[in-house]
Every structure is written in structure tokens, then in C-alpha cells.
Amino acid sequence: MSNLLTTDYQKIFPENLKKYKNLQALSLQFEEVFKEEVVAEIPKLAIFKNLEEQSDEVLSALAWQFVIDNWKEELDREVKIRLIKEAYWAHSKKGTKKIIEENLKKLNYPIQLSEWFEFNGQPFTFKVTTTKINTSVHWVDDLLEIINKYKNCRSILESICLDRERENAEYRVGNFVISEIEKEYFSNLEDRDIKLKSYQGIYKTIEMEVER
């Protein structure tokens, strides 16, 4: 490609036309445009190898081509490129616990998904637990939207729980070290009409360790 950019194309300009100054000026202009608009774009023809060099319009077209469900134009370029690169595998594993967790992690929603048999829930239900609130004020709605796009049809979201904890105090009694930990939880429980009600509260747990 470097040869295409550095070649002097005037060397191949027909000798019998060099006397026409207007044609020679046109050829110089054509050469300049060819190098800037055509040759410079050649590396981008290997689209998937050079996603980082593609324009936002090309990335959006690829998202449409690969039917990327949670695509949004306001996403960071790094996130868009990662979604495109992993689109094939995302579709091949769609509907599984692993793909939901992976896609939420990519979009800054680190969560733990528990299926019904892991927490003694109703059959085909699942719950989501996270220890981090996304910066968006609509993080719950965004979270639900992504989950609904990637979960299988038979599975029903039972709840979304925010679990955060902080250590308040530590006591010593003989050989025992007693830690008082305050946990905050936020839970969205789904009712029969698929509407969410919010519950928020704080509770304390006491953990005791024997010092050795």
C-alpha cells in the first residue's frame, strides 16, 4: 500500500497528452483524490481485522448485520467493537446463564445469576444479584432490557437484588473477634402482571472468628 501512496502517477501520463495543460492539471487532481480517498481506505477492506479503524456508520451497519440485540449508538466505541467481535458466539450461546452474565459484564453490569434450583425457588425462575450500581439513573430498566433480550423464553426473572456491605465495628472478647457488618439490599420483585415493586432496607449480621 505504501507504494500506491508514494508512486508518481505522472510518469504514466501519456506523452501525447502532456501538451494539454488542463488535462495534466486534472490528472494531478485525480491522483491527489485517489491517494487520499481510495488508497488510504484500502486497509479498511479487511473489515473484521481492522474494526478499530472503521467509522461509526460501518460499526452500526455491522451491528444490524449481526443482529446485536443490546446495541445503542451512545455506547463507547470500545464496547461496540467488543460486541461485534463476539456477536457470533453470543448468538450461539443465547439463552444460557453464561451469555447473560458475560453480556451484562461487558456493559458494566457485573452480576451473579442464580437459577431456581440454586436457591430453592419456583421452577424455571432465576434471580440476579449485584454489588454495584451502574452510573445510569435508569440502571434497573436497562438491566431488565438486556436480560429479556438474552434469556430463554421459559425462564422468568424473580428478582433483582443489590447487595452491598460495610464493616461497622469490631469487638474482642477473649480469643474471639466479633465483626458487625451492615448490609444494604435493594430488591425488585416481579409480580404476576410482570410489574416491578421496589423494596429497600438495611440489616446487620454478626460474624465471629476465633483468633489463633
Automatic annotation (TrEMBL):
Superkingdom to which the source organism belongs: Bacteria
InterPro entries named among the record's database cross-references: Tail_protein_I
Protein name: Bacteriophage P2-related tail formation protein
Naturally occurring in which organism (per UniProt): Fusobacterium ulcerans
Lineage: Bacteria, Fusobacteriati, Fusobacteriota, Fusobacteriia, Fusobacteriales
